[in-house]
Amino acid sequence: MTSRINRQEMSFAPESIKVLFLDIVERAKRKYGFSVENFCIMDDHFHMIIRPSSSCGLPKIMQWIKSMFSVTYNRINGLTGHTWGTRYFSRILGNLTEYLRVSSYIDMNPVKAGLVRSCLDWTYSACTFRERGHLAFLDPIPIGPFD
Predict the structure, then answer these.
(1) Which H helix or E strand runs over 99?
(2) Does 2-131 carry CATH code 3.90.1150.200?
(3) Sheet with 2-4, edge to edge strand ranges
(4) pTM score, two decimals?
(5) Closest alpha carbon to 90 in 56, 52, 144
(6) Cα–Cα distance measured from residue 57 to residue 73, given in angstroms and rounded to the nearest whole number
(7) In the chain, where the domains are located
């Protein structure tokens, strides 16, 4: 799943805002019981592979994350109005090949954007979190099922 900031502004650029977003996602995980298997927070958008629990679907999770972030972000910056552009984009990853392709795309996003040479150099990504042992936020990469 991916979602962009309104007008593709670089709202996620400050490190403190990326930390704020991760804190909100962590709070949502505790509230709704989903898993985060991969993520990357760019300066104007984010990508995540999440697995909702059987008790709560993706729309409710995303509504909570995006609204909590918007309210907090606007309050911190003295703003009003929309923080996010369009609705998030998501799709079900139906098999292991598709899962690995999307996961690789997420990992390589900052490299392809020319921001770093290696995905391990982008601080706010699952790739770096796993490398540095910051595993509390992330859930294990699944073996399946993918249907």
Answers:
(1) helix 96-112
(2) no
(3) 2-4, 45-51, 35-41
(4) 0.89
(5) 52
(6) 24
(7) 2-131
Q: Are 46 and 90 in contact (CB under 8 A)?
A: no
Q: How many beta carbons lie within 10 A of that of residue 69, not counting itself?
A: 24
Please give the average pLDDT of every successive group of 10 residues along the chain, which has 147 residues.
78 85 94 94 93 90 92 86 82 90 96 95 94 85 65
Q: From residue 70, how far is each of 79, 81, 84, 144 by CA, in Å?
A: 10, 9, 8, 33
- Residue whose tokens read 């993706």: 58
Q: What pLDDT sits at residue 146?
A: 60
The answer to whether the CB of 43 falls within 8 A of the CB of 13 is yes
Q: Point out which residues pair with 49 in neighbouring strands.
A: 38
pLDDT at 122: 95
